């Protein structure tokens, strides 16, 4: 048998390089120089720095005396934003890399030095505009992301995992293998973008970190489930990332170079469209689950996907309402959708390694797969229907051009 | 893959898909995924017959992997789902840049991941914010300056880890999973420090990096500028081993010592609990990095092991003598608040510096011990003075 073809890993990333050792000064010489470090000298002189000497009002220190009160949930972002002088990021370009919007930039650092210490590309200064990053109610969504994250030790009851018939077990395992693959794709495609978002957008960065963990946490749980109930990992779903991988790689330009990148395309592809489809699949998985445990797992996945979709919709909605040229932005997103919808319909929604296991689960076994297919046929309109309803809500109506079939093509 | 241009063409293409034609004819017989044997018997199905009796901890990767008759492979399989998945014979294999077990694995990654999952906490709910008590002005100022510094530092790993996750072959899911848990941890740390700034009347402190920048004099640089620049900040183009050393073994280790000291100096149950929880998280990250470097050096082919060891020693020397080692241990927004918090009042500052000197010696000693455990012995080579230079 010919050996399989090798291709690069799906998500394009910058190449890595190794530090090349070069001679360094001797240890003793270094230590002697370190002794003369400015901070060491200051400490020896018994002084404290400007952080201590600056006036609490009118100097480098800000907001002395403000005290946030926990709200009914706890000490939320909303509680601190209620009293903060900077409750939301502004459109002011970021002047530092590692810098929170809550902290004032130092007056003595001049623009020339600022340019040197804060290169734009490949850093969190790449995305420092509200229209590129922000969403309405970012604080609430970030809080929800952590609050609703599954706590397996507390919430999962492994004793509810019951042995299933071989056919149904195999179907569930195949479905779980597909979900694992799908969530790695989301994690790989969207994860690196967090490094390009400025620290001023703390709530969004938090949300994206939790979203990344959601994907992987669920992958871990699905793997455990698959490897514990008599079955095992199923078959890779070829073509699952059709369109998505190209859109994400084109948007990121491989995260290389001093070029503009298109975060909105990735959010649309991963959070709005793909997570939207996964959400419907998880609902079907929940309906077809044959044990309380499996149903619980799928219900959790529904919640996770719904949160990711909510982020995507709010992000695209904010983007369209606040970007410099709404019309151009909408055209770009429509083109992304034009590419993704047919490819995802063919390779994802109609993939036999996705639909057939669901049909077996929904029908109740391999002998009743026709019943499962009938349920899928009946459910089918919700794929496009729910997706289009979301797009209506965010101001990107596609009812006249959507390429996901409105009715089941089988 | 061609993209249909209009609705009619899209509909037509879908109608012509072999599976759709089959289904339209009423043939719902599941395909080879359902009928094939597992891969070890020559089929396309991944693996079969795995059974594990959950115990009171549920199902943990530590025990699950121990019970698995298939060991973690030395080389990734180049598939899109986890290891032990199956694949069609004509499907491509994906060349993930990090596809050797020795490049990614850590001795304790399974248990660390399980710990990470079970110890997730919430900055909103799990800190006893109501137990904060008003502190003397100078003490609150010191604490707020310290947490202002930590608030921004905590973003760094979460910005860079996802790049490495996407490079790891999915045959090693435990590694990807652990790194994702670290991203969540770091987000929570950033959040809790941001909240603490506003929680007790202090407010955000002065820009934490400003003093070091304003003090900086290239003529007094310990290392030649061209070297100092290459180790001044991590970015996703760094080799993964170097990344682990920089972020998880020296950077986070120093920060872990900061947290330990913060907990020790905490004046109320809220601050103590905040630092205690963060310390647990950070200790996991440091442990992963340390044991990962050790695994690498224990298992890489001889030539690579030697090259990696040489690179790590070089990087360690350079980092110790610059911002990540010495510079971090002398970060004005950390050590000065420490001294003031330890002193209890500005009038007692000398006493505070005595405590900070002890902190310095402990931090350096622990770092050297950790390097020893990782297989990069630094005793006698370490650029960090064993006693504080003040």
SSE diagram, text form:
The complex is a heterodimer of chains A (410) and B (390).
Chain A: E1 6-8, H1 27-35, H2 38-44, H3 50-53, H4 77-83, H5 111-117, H6 130-133, H7 138-147, H8 152-155, H9 166-190, H10 202-226, H11 244-252, H12 263-288, H13 292-322, H14 326-349, H15 352-363, H16 369-379, H17 381-394
Helix pairs in contact in A: 7-10, 9-10, 9-12, 9-15, 10-13, 11-12, 12-13, 12-14, 12-15, 12-17, 13-14, 13-17, 15-16
Chain B: H1 7-16, H2 18-24, H3 32-35, H4 61-67, E1 93-95, H5 101-104, H6 109-118, H7 137-153, H8 155-165, H9 173-199, H10 210-215, H11 225-230, H12 240-265, H13 269-299, H14 302-320, H15 323-329, H16 332-343, H17 349-374
Helix pairs in contact in B: 6-9, 6-13, 7-9, 7-16, 8-9, 9-13, 12-13, 12-14, 12-15, 12-16, 12-17, 13-14, 13-17, 16-17
Essential attributes:
heterodimer; A: 410 residues; mainly alpha; Ribonucleotide Reductase, subunit A; 17 helices; 56% helix; 1% strand; B: 390 residues; 59% helix
